Every structure is written in C-alpha cells, then in structure tokens.
Amino acid sequence: MKKPVLMYSCLRKSVLMYSCLRKTILLSSFLFMFSCLTSCVDEDEFPDTPMGNFEALWKIIDEHYCFLDYKRQEYGLDWQQAHDKYAQRINGNMSKEQLFEVLAGLLSELRDGHVNLTAAHDMARYWQWYESYPANYNDSLQRVYLGTDYRISSGMQYKILDDNIGYIRYESFNNSVGSGNLTEVLNYFMLCRGLIIDIRSNGGGDLTNAEKIASRFTNERVLVGYIQHKTGPGHSDFSDMEPRYLDPAASLRWQKPVIVLTNRHVFSAANEFAMYMKALPTARLIGDITGGGAGMPFSSSLPNGWVVRFSAVPLYDAKRQPSEFGVIPDLYVAMRDEHFKRGKDTIIEVARKLLSK
C-alpha cells in the first residue's frame, strides 16, 4: 500500500506554473510550507485500488488545497458533498480510463485551471475558466500592428506605432527577461507619448519575469498584494496575511502612461502581472477580466503513481481580495466586428486613443 506523498520537487518548472516570488519571500514561504505540509500529511495509507486512489485524491485536496472555503462562499462548493457524489461512481472492476474520468470530474468541481491530474495516458484539466468568454484577441490582427519590421528582445516583440505610441507584445512569462534587455526596450520608446503592453492570451510562466517588468513602472515601493500559508489540514487553517511589495528597478524606469491589454486567457503569472500593474498610478488595464489562477501550485502522487497538481498557497491583491477568478480591468473593452472587418483591433485602438490624450 502507498500513501499520498507531497512532491517537493515541485520547484521544477514542470510543477510550478510560475516558479517563484521574490527570493526572500520564496525562502520563507517554502520553508514554512515544507514544515506545514509534511506535518499535515496524514500517515494513513491508501491501497492501490479504485477506491483507494479516489480517497487519496479527495484527502489531498481536502487538507492542502487553498481555496475550499473561498469557493464555498463564491459558488457553494461542498467538498464533502462532492466526495459522496463521485464515490458512488467507483467500483472495483472499473478500468483505469473509467477511474481517470471519475477523478477528473471530482477535480472539476474546484473550477481551477491550476488543478490537473496526470496519468500516462492523459491529463485532466479545467478549461471552463475561459471557454464561456469571448477571445478578445486575434493573432492575425495583432500581426498587422507589428508588421515585419518589429524588434525582438527577451520574448518581447515591439515597435513604435505610427502615432508615436510604443507597443510591446509579450506572449508568455516563460520567456526570460533580462535587465539589460528591458533597458534597451524602454530606451527605444523614450520619445513615445505612451506605451502599450499586450499580454492577452498569455498563460503565465515565471513570476520573477512579471516582477522584473512591473518594477520598471514605479519610482517607489508599492504594496501589490498579500500571501498566506497553510498551517493545518482544516479548510481555514492559514497563517496571517503577509504583505508583498514591488520595489522599483535600479535601472531605467518608465515615467509616462502605460496601458496593459488583458483578456480572459491571461492566467497565473500573467494574472499576477496584471494585478501588479493595476496597483501602479501610471498604469491602466483595459480589455476583459483576466482568467485568474491566484494560487501557487504544488503536486502530490496517488497510490497508482498518477500526479495531481493543485493550488496550495493563496495570493491576494493589495485590498486583500483574491484574484483567483480574475483581475477586473479599469476599462472593459471588447473586440468589435466592424473594426475587425477593417483590419483594426478595437482594444489596441482604444488604448492608442487614451494614450494620445
């Protein structure tokens, strides 16, 4: 018999969708999490049977997932009720595919894009967090604005638009950003009236990249959010909220207005970047609400070797509110068909008008 074991190799990129906060926060966070989670893992062992794997999965989430109370308040999630509902579908003769389907259904009750179940034959994921929202992004239109003479640096594609507005397209926070690269990019835009950073459909990556970029848009230390740690197996067993600050970069910083473009596909580290920028006085968010993903993910294994990844550490905005379901833009703007037919991106055009003023 095997017991569910929390895998602290989750510091690897394959486990952490966005790998770290500031180094000081990381050290204290993970030392704290390690001591808490190891003391919270129950010593009860579960057999490698359909019911044993089901019970192991349910208990891992019950004791370590960080949003159970919050989601109970938001949409009435009852995790015990979910257990009773899906346990009825377990039988000892079911195939691994049937078991996987039941376990995936159980996890879908969490409505969390950071929650995945991985087996050799498949990976369960929750995509409904964005499927009912309009795309509000079109790659073909975005290419019209970049043309073929744009520059590329650290994953950023950028150019000066014909109205002297700077435009940066950043597709993934997995693209490492160097300090020297950021300085060169901002220097290039020095005479522009304003700057657009387009992170639409950015699914996240390394949170340190989000912090590096955001730090170029403030001249003083800014409170951008809070973090908590799980302290026990109870759904409400958390430490006090600890503040998270964004410090100004020591290098060149942008002093003019900046607009960040968002849509529902902005998730995880990109969601955090949107939250950072919204806290800054010179920045505005326009577009659609982001996709959320405000919990730092960890992983654990089931008796049969399947791996579940889940949100274990909750992050909050500067008002102590969770952004698990997304960051609300300062101005909602949707793509319009009449603009699309003329080769125009409504959200980019609104940003240009705002910066031109």
Strand tally, please? Answer: 14
Q: Helical content, roughly?
A: 25-40%
Give the rounded overall mean pLDDT.
Answer: 89
Distance between the termini: 67 Å
Shape: elongated
**Helix and strand element order:** EHHHHHEEHHEEEHEHEEEHEEEEHH
Q: What proportion strand?
A: 15-25%
Contiguous uncertain segments of 5+ residues: 1-43
- Please outline the major beta sheet: 7 strands, antiparallel
Radius of gyration: 22 Å
The SS-based structural class is alpha/beta
- Give the number of helices: 12
Oligomer kind: single chain
Short précis:
With 357 residues, the protein is an alpha/beta fold. The protein has twelve helices and 14 strands. Helix 2 (50-64) runs parallel beside helix 5 and helix 9 packs parallel to helix 10.
Kindly describe this structure.
This protein has 357 residues and is of the alpha/beta class. Helix content is 33%, strand content 19%. The chain is built from twelve helices and 14 strands. The chain has helices at 23-40, 50-64, 68-75, 79-87, 96-108, 128-131, 139-146, 179-188, 207-214, 269-278, 337-341, 346-356, and strands at 5-7, 116-118, 123-124, 151-153, 156-160, 165-170, 194-198, 222-227, 242-246, 258-262, 283-287, 295-301, 307-317, 331-332. The strands form two sheets. Strands 1, 2, 3, 8, 9, 12 and 13 form a seven-stranded antiparallel β-sheet that branches. A seven-stranded mixed β-sheet has the order 4-5-6-7-10-11-14, sandwiched between helices.
